């Protein structure tokens, strides 16, 4: 999908993240079932889907016809980053037809000895027309990714690196600062648990938002209800 078409499609909208990795309730080894979650997201009005794994990228595109932000979560020895950390995953996502490839663009250690800047340069050199989304945890990482030539920056990793703020909810400040200063679209993502938080995130000036666990992870959703009940009514039950 052309960049302008994709960006126009998602402007001011909520992208739904439909992911299930091994160990989660909706992960099935034999086949992908995330296309069903993506079907529901499309019916609700989501203009695009974010998903992990090659099989889910393919299944969701076939089921919904929506553009897909694809990533691969994998841990390698020596790597602190785990979202599309090497060229191997980038190659696989491009081959699978991901409209956007999402990469961990934090400044954390890379096992191949390259810097994130060197990695992004290599990716852009190999795939000059591929849309790239940088998942970052701080303002400095967002600025760096923008200068490295990515097409959009997401606040995905805020709170998930040792040096970023540990918040219970969305990092509105990071969204606001990046949206104000970057000359490319900023995607607000991370710990958006309620419709009210989704609205507040969009009010920061970001181009679009991504919501995942609050919609597509039933164990997380149920756990939030149960935790609230136990904290408020536990002694009286």
UniProtKB/TrEMBL annotation:
Converts N-acetylmannosamine-6-phosphate (ManNAc-6-P) to N-acetylglucosamine-6-phosphate (GlcNAc-6-P). GO terms for biological process: carbohydrate metabolic process; N-acetylmannosamine catabolic process; N-acetylneuraminate catabolic process. This is Putative N-acetylmannosamine-6-phosphate 2-epimerase. Pfam families: NanE (PF04131). It catalyses: an N-acyl-D-glucosamine 6-phosphate = an N-acyl-D-mannosamine 6-phosphate. Belongs to the NanE family. GO terms for cellular component: cytosol. Pathway: Amino-sugar metabolism; N-acetylneuraminate degradation; D-fructose 6-phosphate from N-acetylneuraminate: step 3/5. Keywords: Carbohydrate metabolism, Isomerase. SUPFAM superfamilies: Ribulose-phoshate binding barrel (SSF51366). CDD domains: NanE. InterPro entries: Aldolase_TIM, NanE, RibuloseP-bd_barrel. The gene is nanE. It comes from the Bacteria. Its EC number is 5.1.3.9. One of its GO terms (molecular function) is N-acylglucosamine-6-phosphate 2-epimerase activity. It comes from Candidatus Caccovicinus merdipullorum. Transmembrane segments: none annotated.
